[in-house]
Amino acid sequence: MADAAPRFEEALAELEGLVQRLEKGELPLEESLVAFERGVNLVRLLTQRLADVEQRVEVLLKTEAGKLIRRPLEDEEQ
Question: What is the largest CA-CA distance in the chain?
Answer without folding.
Answer: 59
